[in-house]
């Protein structure tokens, strides 16, 4: 087993190679996360000047370092499990100004700095014309940390207000319009993937919304290809707990933009699912992780969908007749 000094040499070597533009062997890029996120990984010994700008001023505490490493492992595991690096060269990261997308951006920058993410990153915010949206926060912040970014204005808010009946919630239509614009921007920026900040709770809530209201077993996939077939949608935070992301964002002091500027959040079905899951977790700790694991262990023969399993052809095997000895 590699010792701490070897861990450090491998991690630093990969990071330097990436910075110099060297073509590294796939075996190095896929070095196990336990090695490259060890206590001797470069981030633990780097001076503030060597850190990515987004991490300068971060807390220097044991609890924060553990939280950061846990989230990095979550992200790296999702990237590995779902093959998110298969041929990808340039990622467009959707940054809304909320805790999840800020955390996603920081964690991807961290992995890239460690030499574990051989893709180019560009952050993107879509200003949808919501009332009182603070237009200066994201461009100022992204510029201050030296992150390549694009800020796009599209007044989808007016379209949503026109189309959604009085008393209805805007979220579904707003999300579809936002996604379409992000696809367009990704193409214009030469990106082959759109990266979104949905986390463990988002995935579980979506599953139960489909389960209770849609009558189907489905949720947000960690990886999918759009209908046109030219872009991949990735969710590297699929294994990350929302509570961890909230703690991380608070510790990093991200300039959070609230998600309720449109005034259409009250009474959402998603809130009911969130409350249900929180109650289950409070009464039976660890159930969220168990439910997430269940989504990765489907057994079609033990469900009721004949499109997934050929029940018609399922028959018993007739025992062979044995002739008696004469």
Task: Give a written overview of the molecule.
It contains 13 helices and six strands. The chain is an alpha/beta fold and 326 residues long. The chain has a single domain, classed as HUPs (Rossmann fold), CATH 3.40.50.620. Strands 3-2-1-4-6-5 form a six-stranded mixed β-sheet, sandwiched between helices. Helix 6 links the parallel strand 1 and strand 2 (120-127). Helix 5 (62-81) packs across helix 6, helix 5 (62-81) packs across helix 11 and helix 6 crosses helix 11 (242-252). The longest helix is centred in the N-terminal third of the chain and has 20 residues, at 62-81. The chain is globular and about 95 Å long.
What's the SSE blueprint?
Blueprint: H1 4-19, H2 26-29, H3 33-36, H4 42-45, H5 62-81, E1 90-94, H6 99-113, E2 120-127, H7 137-144, E3 149-153, H8 156-163, H9 171-188, E4 193-195, H10 200-214, E5 223-225, E6 232-234, H11 242-252, H12 269-283, H13 287-295
Parallel strand pairs: 1-2, 1-4, 2-3, 4-6
Antiparallel strand pairs: 5-6
Ranges with pLDDT <50 over ≥5 residues? 1-9, 26-44
Q: In percent, how helical is the residue content?
A: 40-55%
Distance between the termini: 65 Å
Radius of gyration: 23 Å
Q: In the residues, how many domains can be counted? A: 1
Count of helices? 13
- The H-and-E topology, N to C, reads as HHHHHEHEHEHHEHEEHHH
The CATH superfamily title: HUPs
What is the CATH architecture assignment?
3-Layer(aba) Sandwich
User: What is the typical, i.e. mean, pLDDT?
Assistant: 84
Morphology: globular
Using the coordinates shown, work out and report the CATH topology.
Rossmann fold
Main sheet properties: 6 strands, mixed
Q: Count of DSSP E strands?
A: 6
Assembly state (oligomeric): single chain
Report strand %: 5-15%
Q: Could you name the CATH class?
A: Alpha Beta
Arrangement of strands in the largest sheet: 3-2-1-4-6-5
Judged by helices, strands and strand pairing, the structural class is: alpha/beta
């Amino acid at each position: 087993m590699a010792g701490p000094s070897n861990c450090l040499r491998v991690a630093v070597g990969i990071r330097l190679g990436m910075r110099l533009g060297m073509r590294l062997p796939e075996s190095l890029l896929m070095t196990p996360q336990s090695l490259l996120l060890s206590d001797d990984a470069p981030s633990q010994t780097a001076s503030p000047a060597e850190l990515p700008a987004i991490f300068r001023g971060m807390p220097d505490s044991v609890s924060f370092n553990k939280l950061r490493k846990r989230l990095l492992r979550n992200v790296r595991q999702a990237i590995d499990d779902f093959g998110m690096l298969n041929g990808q060269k340039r990622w467009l990261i959707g940054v809304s100004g909320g805790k999840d997308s800020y955390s996603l951006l920081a964690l991807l920058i961290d992995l890239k700095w460690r030499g574990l993410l051989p893709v180019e990153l560009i952050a993107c915010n879509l200003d949808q014309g919501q009332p009182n949206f603070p237009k200066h926060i994201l461009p100022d912040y992204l510029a201050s940390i030296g992150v390549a970014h694009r800020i796009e204005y599209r007044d989808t808010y007016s379209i949503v207000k026109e189309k959604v009946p009085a008393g209805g919630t805007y979220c579904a239509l707003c999300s579809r319009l936002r996604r379409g614009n992000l696809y367009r921007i990704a193409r214009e920026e030469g990106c082959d993937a759109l990266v979104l900040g949905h986390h463990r709770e988002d995935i579980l809530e979506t599953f139960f919304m489909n389960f209770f209201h849609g009558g189907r077993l489905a949720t947000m996939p960690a990886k999918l290809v759009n209908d046109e077939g030219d872009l991949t949608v990735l969710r590297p935070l699929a294994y990350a707990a929302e509570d961890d992301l909230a703690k991380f964002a608070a510790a990093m002091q991200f300039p959070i933009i609230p998600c309720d500027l449109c005034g259409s959040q009250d009474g959402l079905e998603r809130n009911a699912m969130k409350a249900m899951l929180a109650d289950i977790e409070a009464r039976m700790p660890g159930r969220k992780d168990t439910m997430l694991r269940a989504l990765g262990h489907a057994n079609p023969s033990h469900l009721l969908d004949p499109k997934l399993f050929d029940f018609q052809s399922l028959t018993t095997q007739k025992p062979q007749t044995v002739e008696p000895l004469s």
